[in-house]
């Protein structure tokens, strides 16, 4: 019962954070509100949460990373794959080496392998934290896609570096060849597991649906289970479950292009996934806040290991490490941009100057999150000879401090840094949308004309004017959509479309109120009421 009560309390805290976030200034990101509520729960609760990192990884990360991989624009990933890979893998290794040496220099009592382990676990940016911060900040879409792609992939490289640093601390030995081969296996087998599980499950589901029909709710449940299956298969193969979940999500986006899912299933599934994303994101940060008081208390007892007795040294270490991470990230991003400009010059392409504000924004947007917390909590308690793991409490404290400081810096500095900036429009997106609308409308008109002829031939008894009149009404709707994307009258049609949207929303709202009023007075049944309201809601969703 205690566990169930804690889960319910945390879910209520997530709900409360959504309303508190609307009251507070927009500069305060939702994760910080949730961390604060988690700390409040810890202060008022008589028993805390014993966070098991392996269970945490299994329950929270697969569905969230799967959804991010599913929804991230694939064109952006492919277009900027070079930059994303440089940040996701090259920057992680650069950070581990640079920050590891900095930490060991700051805290000589912390062994070098432990310093590298701390640097490794704070090197990956958190996709949930990055999305939460960028959602309320005016940031170029292309940069946002790069940051999202980086945060999806750098978890695996950071956790691999962390694993080998911990192994070096435990055994005193490190093999670069073994580490390289293991890393390649983790990446290749993890991606293969994610793609394979997704393709196999969707093929089996289609076969069953084709032969036995589709039970209500079954496709949605199967879709929810895919990331867990991919993660577990990859872990059984000693590969990266995180990359498997991401690869499963990316594969799912391509599977969806086949169009086999029913329209009602897609609508319901989208609502379910939105709820899952909101709940798990929130609980992750509430859990982080709930863990902080105990972590801070334990860190105070480890000060002797660093040779200091003043607790303010803990704060100084945390800010120094965070600042070092920002400097390393800025240096790598600057070098990456310079390399891109050099390639453009070599290929005789138009060159772009480095915007200092965007360079700084890319640096500050690399916030850390709950993946860092879960990873650092996997530090062993003891060495093989029975001695305590060196500086374990201090390492956990510094990792959590970096999370908080990076979130604070990003949420405070980014809106002010990018305020007033005007970003170039994305004409490609509008052109692609107009092309798709025009092609879809033309295909719809052709299908209507063909179906009209087939219906008239199959039902000769009906009035011959019925089908042409019905077809004319439907075709008029699609002809209107074609006119909307006519470039010669685009502005006028967009104004007309906006006015039509407001009128339709007002009409739909009046329809819904009337249906509810009829149901309240028992003029229609609840079943009829729900059916009509669902139809109205689906129509309204199209215009929202």
From TrEMBL:
What the entry lists under InterPro entries is as follows: Cation/H_exchanger_CPA1, Cation/H_exchanger_CPA1_bac, Cation/H_exchanger_TM, NaH_exchanger
UniProt keyword annotation of Protease present? no
* Compartments, record wording: Cell inner membrane; Cell membrane
What this chain does, per the entry, is described as: Na(+)/H(+) antiporter that extrudes sodium in exchange for external protons.
One GO cellular component, as annotated: plasma membrane
Which is an annotated Pfam family here? Na_H_Exchanger
User: Which protein family is named in the record?
Assistant: Belongs to the monovalent cation:proton antiporter 1 (CPA1) transporter (TC 2.A.36) family.
Q: Where is the Cation/H+ exchanger transmembrane domain?
A: 12-419
Keywords noted in UniProt: Antiport, Cell inner membrane, Cell membrane, Ion transport, Membrane, Sodium, Sodium transport, Transmembrane, Transmembrane helix, Transport
Q: What is its main location?
A: membrane
Q: Tell me one GO molecular function of this protein.
A: sodium:proton antiporter activity
Origin organism is Duganella guangzhouensis
Q: What is this protein called?
A: Na+/H+ antiporter
* Membrane topology summary: Multi-pass membrane protein
GO terms (BP aspect): regulation of intracellular pH; sodium ion import across plasma membrane
Transmembrane portions of the chain:
6-24, 55-72, 84-107, 156-176, 182-204, 240-259, 271-292, 312-337, 358-381, 393-414
């Amino acid at each position: 019962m205690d566990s169930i009560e804690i889960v319910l309390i945390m879910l209520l805290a997530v709900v409360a954070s959504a309303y508190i976030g609307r009251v507070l200034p927009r500069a305060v990101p939702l994760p910080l509100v949730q961390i604060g509520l988690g700390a409040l729960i810890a202060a008022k609760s008589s028993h805390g949460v014993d966070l098991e990192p392996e269970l945490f990884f299994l329950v929270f990360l697969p569905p969230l990373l799967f959804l991010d991989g599913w929804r991230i624009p694939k064109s952006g990933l492919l277009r900027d794959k070079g930059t994303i890979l440089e940040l996701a893998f090259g920057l992680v290794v650069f950070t581990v080496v640079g920050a590891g040496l900095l930490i060991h220099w700051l805290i000589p009592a912390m062994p070098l392998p432990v310093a590298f382990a701390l640097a490794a676990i704070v090197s990956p940016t958190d996709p949930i934290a990055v999305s939460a911060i960028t959602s309320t900040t005016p940031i170029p879409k292309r940069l946002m896609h790069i940051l999202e792609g980086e945060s999806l992939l750098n978890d695996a490289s950071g956790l691999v570096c962390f694993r080998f640093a911990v192994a070096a601390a435990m055994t005193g030995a490190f093999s670069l060849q073994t580490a390289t081969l293991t890393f390649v296996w983790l990446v290749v087998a993890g991606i293969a597991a994610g793609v394979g599980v997704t393709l196999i499950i969707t093929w089996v589901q289609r076969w069953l649906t084709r032969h036995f029909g589709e039970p209500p709710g079954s496709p949605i449940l199967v879709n929810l289970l895919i990331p867990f299956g991919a993660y577990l298969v990859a872990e059984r193969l000693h590969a990266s479950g995180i990359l498997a979940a991401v690869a499963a999500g990316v594969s799912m986006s391509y599977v969806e292009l086949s169009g086999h899912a029913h329209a009602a299933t897609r609508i319901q599934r989208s609502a379910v996934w939105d709820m899952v994303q909101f709940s798990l994101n929130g609980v992750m940060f509430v859990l982080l806040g709930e863990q902080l008081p105990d972590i801070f208390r334990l860190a105070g007892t480890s000060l002797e290991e660093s040779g200091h007795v003043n607790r303010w040294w803990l704060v100084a270490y945390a800010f120094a490490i965070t600042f070092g991470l920002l400097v390393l990230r800025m240096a790598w991003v600057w070098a990456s941009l310079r390399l891109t400009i050099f390639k453009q010059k070599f290929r005789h392409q138009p060159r772009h100057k480095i915007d200092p504000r965007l360079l700084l924004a890319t640096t500050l947007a690399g916030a850390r999150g709950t993946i860092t917390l879960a990873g650092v909590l996997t530090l062993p308690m003891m060495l093989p000879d029975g001695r305590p793991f060196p500086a374990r409490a201090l390492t956990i404290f510094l990792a959590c401090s970096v999370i908080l400081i990076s979130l604070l810096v990003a949420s405070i500095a980014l809106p002010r840094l990018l305020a007033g900036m005007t970003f170039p429009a994305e004409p490609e997106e509008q052109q692609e949308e107009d092309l798709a609308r025009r092609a879809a409308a033309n295909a719809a008109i052709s299908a209507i004309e063909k179906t009209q002829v087939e219906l008239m031939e199959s039902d000769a008894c009906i009035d011959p004017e019925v089908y042409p009149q019905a077809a004319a009404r439907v075709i008029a709707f699609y002809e209107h959509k074609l006119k909307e994307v006519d470039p010669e009258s685009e502005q006028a049609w967009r104004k007309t479309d906006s006015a039509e949207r407001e009128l339709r929303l007002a009409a739909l709202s009046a329809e819904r109120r009337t249906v509810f009023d009829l149901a309240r007075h028992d003029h229609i049944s609840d079943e009829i009421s729900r059916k009509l309201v669902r139809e109205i809601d689906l129509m309204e969703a199209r215009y929202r």
